[in-house]
Amino acid sequence: MSAGETITIDAIYSPSTAELDVGLIYADGSFHYFTTTGGRISKTIEMTEAGTYALAIRNNASYKVTVSGSVNY
Known about the structure:
The protein is mainly β. It contains no helices and six strands. The protein has one domain (about 5-60). A hairpin with a 5-residue loop joins β2 and β3. The N and C termini lie close together (about 10 Å).
């Protein structure tokens, strides 16, 4: 991706009581994330630098969480 481009994440997850860290893994392996609760993920992230990124979702709950949605870039 190029600097200035955006990624939009729109998803729901269940159970909604879970807390998730959602974000991007940069080429250097660092995880830049935001924390979400309440069963919905809705966020647009603007890229600050050009590069290749991977989307990651970390489940902070002690139980299984199901995520469904879309990512547009």
